[in-house]
């Protein structure tokens, strides 16, 4: 190793330790081979094994440090205060969920109040589906009661012949306080913005097409080749010259054919 190479302090100490370990390994192998008179192949094999073991020992130095972010945590504070679950890392949240799921997989009779509270917090947050509930201390019916209070009785004195009809089905989730959540006709503000923007662009495009018409079409850019123009002009001149010659020959031929009737008598 050249002396010009410089390492940081931890890496340099590790490198020096490895060199010393390999040097000691070679000395041990030489001593054992001289004492036991091992063959050259056995000496090389033993040296390789000791070198690998030395590297493993040095690697364990770097792996001995514990990283708190990857180590399991004590989940007791989470059970005592479920609000701390949100501040955990994804790895530690998975640890809490695993422990809670193990309890849920067993008999529900064994679940404690803390287990139920933590499960409810993970599912719904602080309030969740009971958001907007404010009649905790009143004697009125709770908001999640899906029936009319007081109930409408058809007949206060029913008899054996009184007809009892089946009550209409009731969706327990669609209570008075939750009706806005299940109103599918309403749209969230982001969807409204995109919908109105799309509608505006469509109308603007139609108006532009109607007003501009064909005049607003982009003009086609024609690139003219001067050599091609010159070649076409030369071909056209040659064609005109050829036509003039043909016309002249045709006129001369007609003149020859236009002879008097007495030409033969004179001849």
From TrEMBL:
It is a single-pass membrane protein. It is found in: Mitochondrion inner membrane. GO terms for biological process: mitochondrial electron transport, cytochrome c to oxygen. Pathway: Energy metabolism; oxidative phosphorylation. Residues 231-258 form a coiled coil. Keywords: Coiled coil, Membrane, Mitochondrion, Mitochondrion inner membrane. Belongs to the cytochrome c oxidase IV family. This is Genetic interactor of prohibitin 7, mitochondrial. It comes from Diutina rugosa (Yeast).
